[in-house]
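Explain my protein.
***
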Amino acid sequence: MPKLRGEAFWRETLRSAHYVVAPMVDQSELAWRLLSRRHGAQLCYTPMLHAQVFLRDANYRRENLYDEACPEDRPLIVQFCANDPEVFVQAALLAQDYCDAIDLNLGCPQMIAKRGHYGAFLQEEWDLLQRMILLANEKLSVPITCKIRVFPDIDKTVKYAQMLEKAGCQLLTVHGRTKEQKGPLAGVASWEHIQAVRKAVNIPVFANGNIQCLSDVEECIRKTGVHGVMSAEGNLHNPALFEGRNPLVWEMAEEYLEIVRKYPCPLSYVRAHLFKLWHHTLQVYQQLREELAKVKTLEGIVDVNRELKLRCQEEIANQKEGEKPKEGLPFFHWICQPYIRPGPKERCRENGDSGTEKGVRGKRALEEEEDGNSELLSKNKQKKKLRNPNKSFDPSLKPKYAKCDQCGNPKGTKCVFNMCRGCCKKRAFKEVADCPGHGLLFKTKYEKSLSWQHSQRGIQTAEISQRGDAEVGETAVLKEAGDS
């Protein structure tokens, strides 16, 4: 059967999917995909898989794809990150029998993607991307798709999309944010960019960004003309988003936990999902938040979920008539609803803006705050403070370390060279010396080696001598026998 392309691929293979669950690392596993499909999702992506690891590690393939094969979980697109055409295609060949298409991740903006040189950090390398997609389009039996982020300039974004289409991409998902828009700086996704791409290409386009409820989906399709809409965070906080419902949190949580019993996944995934579902409630019941973070078994998570449900039901029973949701929420905290990510904190340091925009405090500025006011600490440090109230983040109270003579790192207090372990190891190896302070015994081991070699030579010499004496004796005996 010939490989379907473009519109035909979207209509027949993907069944004209409009509602799409995004690829999410450690979050779009089989159990969550099945829950989302039960509540309106028509197409799902796997979490991003590393092509290099997928190619070399059979356990990774089995745990992340092969063992998750399920008839209910179709249509399904497998997403890879890669930066080498051959590696990408070889990994895709191992995955193509378990999915309906292969997606190349060109949208991940995280630092790990920058270090690994993949995701959105390939968006300037058009020659490489063309080679990857051309080769995949030629070798694979399933279509190749791409998920991208936009450039600040609309025209460049359009040319980028057209280049991918020309190379062989059969469906394009456009996240309407640049690679710099992430975390507290995410801001609003640009549907204008998405609309421009949709008009410029002849392949199906999915939109991603600003999707918190079903009305957002409908508005996005109307304004941009895309074929479908992808949701990530909106789906994590409300799996029934595509049904247009806002169910009780415990209903979704209990249904998800039942699916996990049938299709197990790492406990960290389950915990992360419950943190998202119960996000607003856990702001009220901080103690249960701590318990959820500490539990080590699925049954423990089920117990915490049950306790959260009971607390909410008690609150509902004691609710006064006409009472409204607190904290500016659209619904009461026990109802699935969007989470609006807060922007950067708007406070300047007294001595200036530290290289960031005026009035915007960066993460580094938060870390340098004094310990006196916990409100000025980063969220991560506030959590540490909660676990250990005596912990101090005041830089002036940090212990002072003597520095290595070579690199400036803290030196070993008992190092014979006054260096850190790394520099000490290099010098001790070069000079065949010992440093007991760092447990480095190059000289001792070398001397032992020489001693052993000397003893071995002595043993060999003695054996040769004995063998020679034996041969002389044997010759003498034979000679005497001949004379007689």
Observations:
- DSSP finds 20 helices and eleven strands in the chain.
- Residues 346-372 have pLDDT under 50 and may be disordered.
- The domain at 6-244 is CATH 3.20.20.70 (TIM Barrel).
- The first strand starts at residue 19 and ends at 21.
